[in-house]
Write a structure and sequence with these properties.
Elements (H helix, E strand, L loop, with lengths): L1 E7 L26 E6 L2 E7 L8 E7 L5 H7 L13 H8 L29 E4 L13 E4 L15
Length: 162
Amino acid sequence: MITEVEAYDGVNDPASHAFTRTPRSEIMYGPPWRLYVYRIHGHHCANVVTGPTEHASAVLIRAGRVVEGLPIARERRPSVHDDDALARGPGNLTRALGITLADKGTDLLSPTPVALRRRDGPPASNIRDGPRVGVRLAADNPWRFWLADEPSVSAYRRHPRA
């Protein structure tokens, strides 16, 4: 269950990888519902391309609660003893779910290998918003969204040069 995300407004957002079109960000210019995976600081991050095509908007999946496959997630993160922390933070989330660069471009509406499933969401009153984590540019945009009082949500850290 996704518990925390950050939005990136593609070509209009200087904090987005797609602000400048590069081979790495090319997937973001395509159709929505594709997985954009990249490697940073030794771990992978997963984004859902939201479109529209050529606009390159995406949502970074920052945190989640493992609700299925808990034993596998624990195997992938053996040093973590708190299930709330298994997928807290974008690198931990991809590790717990087994998402790698091989998943880049996956159609998230198809059933394999990585897919999104719609479930009833929380009431709007339980969703909080605030500035994005760790970005230097457009740092004050309130485009981070998380579930209130959810222990799997990561801590807010402002970039020191924001």
